Amino acid sequence: MLELNPNVRWTDIAGQEEAKTLLAEALVMPALMPEFFKGIRRPWRGILMCGPPGTGKTMLAKAVATECNTTFFNISASSISSKWRGESEKLVRTLFQMARLHSPSTIFIDEIESISSTRGGASEHETSRRVKTELLVQMDGVGSSLIKSLDGRDPVVMVLAATNLPWLLDEAMRRRLEKRIYIGPPDLLAREQMLRISLKDVDVEEDVDVEDIAKRVQGFSGADIATLCRDAAMMKLREKMRSVKPSELNLLKPEDLKLPVSKSDFEAALLKVQSSLSSADFERYDQWLADYGSA
Ligand SMILES: Nc1ncnc2c1ncn2[C@@H]1O[C@H](COP(=O)(O)OP(=O)(O)OP(=O)(O)O)[C@@H](O)[C@H]1O
Ligand SMILES: [Mg+2]
């Protein structure tokens, strides 16, 4: 459940400059100056990153863990709802207690809609209802004034959540995730950066025109671009494998596999890999943000 050292840095993430700045500010400043962030200036109780799949939400949270000097806890929704049946709400309570003790802390909840969706109703499992309630109670900081962090200060615990289905969140959770950040698909510059990041460990032929490819992958998500690059980078290897008999594979030397990616590899990959995002989805995010977005 707790993942240590995800090792993602701000520079590994293309674009999303606003989100990076906002996260750094919202999570780090209150931790540095808790006395200032009191009363009307109290920090956000929670921050919600929402946007289409594969745009870097989980990556941004991992970068927070690496780059911001706060203790980082990562709850995956599936681990609290299934594995810990019965013990789940105790787990949530303990987690927040630990976070207060090791304050300043950030608790990251990925795919939050799977814990806190409105679907509930009568069919909802008793356990998940109790987990949901405990999470809401803990986010309100009930009982937190009784605990001091190890450094003797009032604890600062921030919840950072991510979802690609924000409209499924129930109202109580939405209210606690006061700050909402849209993580959208990459613009031209970000796409170019993303291509360069994806290709940094492979040899690239001179005929590969990254700027041109960036223009042609408009509408792709970051994940789609990563898939494209992987596909292009594997093209030559696949050809090579086809030309070698299986019995001779062990005779291949590492230098035989030093096969730079070329323009034609990208052309072939571009025919296969498509954008996974649709314009209907974008309208849905626009609408949700118009209704519930925050400055
Ligand atoms: N801004 C970005 N910069 C660099 N790589 C990116 C970026 N966005 C996405 N990627 C690539 O896409 C992959 C998936 O990104 P990530 O898991 O952060 O998406 P997500 O927004 O959390 O998606 P989901 O909503 O499906 O959980 C990453 O491993 C990375 O290869
Ligand atoms: Mg994710």
TrEMBL record:
A Pfam family that the UniProt record links to this protein: Vps4_C
GO cellular component, one term: microtubule cytoskeleton
Lineage: superkingdom: Eukaryota
A GO term for molecular function: ATP hydrolysis activity
Gene Ontology biological process terms, A to Z: microtubule severing
InterPro entries recorded: AAA+_ATPase (IPR003593), AAA_lid_3 (IPR041569), ATPase_AAA_core (IPR003959), MT-severing_AAA_ATPase (IPR050304), P-loop_NTPase (IPR027417), Spast_Vps4_C (IPR015415)
UniProt KW keywords: ATP-binding, Nucleotide-binding
Domain AAA+ ATPase: 43-187
Name of this protein: Katanin p60 ATPase-containing subunit A-like 1
Organism: Rhizoclosmatium globosum
Taxonomy of the source species: Eukaryota, Fungi, Fungi incertae sedis, Chytridiomycota, Chytridiomycota incertae sedis
